[in-house]
Every structure is written in structure tokens, then in C-alpha cells.
Amino acid sequence: MTRALLLLRRRLVGSVFVLLIVVIGTFLLLEAAPGDAVDAYIASTGGDAGMIELLRHRWGLDQSALTRLATYLWALLHLDLGQSVTFSRPIRDVILERLPNTLLLMGSATALSFGLGSALGIYAGARPGGFRDRLLSIGSLALYAVPGFWLGLVLIIVFAVDLRWFPIGGIESIASGKTGLDRAADIARHLVLPVSALGFIYLALYLRMMRAGMAEVWRQDFVLAARAKGLSRRRIVLAHVARNALLPLVTMLGLQSAQMLGGSVVIESVFSVPGLGRLAQEAVAARDTPLLLGIILVSAVLVIVINLLVDIAYAFLDPRVGASEAGA
Fold first, then answer.
1. Model confidence over 151-160: pLDDT tens digits?
2. For 27-86, what is each residue's pLDDT tens digit?
3. Residues of the chain with CATH 1.10.3720.10
4. Is the CATH number 1.10.260.40 carried by domain 100-317?
5. Strand pairing partners for 83?
6. Where does the ABC transmembrane type-1 domain start and stop, copy by copy (predicted)?
7. Among 206, 200, 204, 194, which residue's Cα sits nearest to residue 264?
């Protein structure tokens, strides 16, 4: 427990600087882009020079970039993300409305890809070079090469339009009045296709990594010793080979969290899921810089938290890593 706390403290200190770099870097990039929220608003609704000047003053865009950055950082110290130009509401409230949908989509897709991918990787790596190993390797390579948006569109056409097994999009039925288990079942039914589209891509990655890790572990001396003792192949695979091949997958789970979050932007757009991905798309279209900064900041915090949990889990799975990290 002490080792995990020391590791957590070191990671938290580094995370503060990471978040600061993310905020400042994102702000400067958005400032370098042409146009602002006033330009996007006038382009969609129209207005004269007086309205433009009034909006720039109301939204603080008549101040210098350095002043606005300092004001934003000071507000962040008080956990204030500011006001959304698009929604005219506190950004914190807007993000908290959408965040659960993204977490549900990401969590379900991660469980699907990691769980099923690891299981299929163990199944393929149990007999390296066999028929099922080659079949699953080719299938996973083909699946990994498929773009997420294309897979999502195919799933919609086949299972939502033609077969009508699942809804085309959304997170739940509008004005259904369902509560409790009925609402949970309705949300689960809506999530089947987007979770499949997002999870299957990374499923192929975990399958290939597990299979490759098991192929390497099979050549280790302790595996040869276990075979010489006469242990059954099933016990060797589960107790020795798969267990040691699982460690790189835990590391990859943290590294893929950022890519999974980025992939959810596309999947949420394809399936009309009201999450952070669609919210970011709306913020970019409206040039709502404060809202986009808030989304990126929350996304960075989410990725950091996931990697912290992965580091702690890795420290427990491999005490040597935890000891070296804590003592560094």
C-alpha cells in the first residue's frame, strides 16, 4: 500500500505540469486559428459593426490574448471553467451533462476490447502456428485495418436499417418515460452498435498483443521447466504463459485510453451519441474557445486518471516495477 501511495504522489505532481502545458498549448493553438466565436455567430445570424463590437466586449474578445489566458488560468484555480458562448451556460454544467455518456461508451468499449481481445489472444496463442492462431491473426489484422467510421456505418445499415434489431442512433429513446431497469435496458440496446464499432478496432490490437506476448513467453525457461514437470497444457497456458503475457496489455490499456477517447469523437458523431465528442464538434463549429478548452482539459484529466489507475494496477501485478518507481 505504501508503494502504491508513493507512486500515486509522484504521478500526481507530474500531472499538474502536464495539465498546465495542455491548457496553455491548446489556448495558443486556438488563438493562432483564424476567426473567433463572434465571426462564427455573425456568419450564421448576421449583424452590423455595432453588434460585433458589443459581442466582442461581452465575451471578452476585445482583450489581449495574454490577458485572457491569465484570466482563464486564475479562474481554473477556483475550479471555474467559465461560460459557454454557444449555450450561454456554465461550461461545467454543459460538460457534466455529456460526460456520463462518453464514460459509458468508453468503459463498455474498453471492457469489450480488452476482455474479448485477451481471451481470443489466449485462445490463439495456446498453440502458436496452428490453424486457429493463423485464422485469428489474419482476422484481427483485417479488423484493425478497418476505419471506425466505416465500421459504424456498416453496422447501422445491416443491423439498424435492414434487420432493425437496434436503434440507428442516440443514447436512449426520446420521451420514453422509462425508469429503472427498463431505462437501463433501453440505454444498453442503444449502445450495442456504437460500443461494437469502437471496441472491435481495439479488440484486434489486444488480440495481436496477447498472441505475440504468449509466443514470446512460450520460449522462456520457466515454461520449459513446467512442461518438463508434466503439467497439463491448459494449466501451463493459464497459470504461466497467459499470466505473464498479460502485463504488456495492462500498459497498453493506459496508452490506448487517449486514442479511445479520440475515437469516441467519430463514433459519437456517426451514432448521434450526445457525449464529449459531439460537444467538441459543436464547439469547434461555433468557435466556442472556452467550451473547447474545458472539453480538452476534462479529457486530459480523464486520460491522466486512467493512466494513474493502470500504473497502480501494474505496480501490484509486478512488484519490481512498483519498487523501482517508488524508490526513484
1. 888 889 989 8
2. 888 777 776 667 666 666 666 677 777 777 776 777 777 888 888 888 888 888 888 888
3. 100-317
4. no
5. 90
6. 99-314
7. 194
Amino acid at site 79: L
C-alpha cell at 201: 478496432
**What is the rounded distance in angstroms from the CA atom of residue 250 to the CA atom of residue 229?**
30
C-alpha cell at 77: 484555480
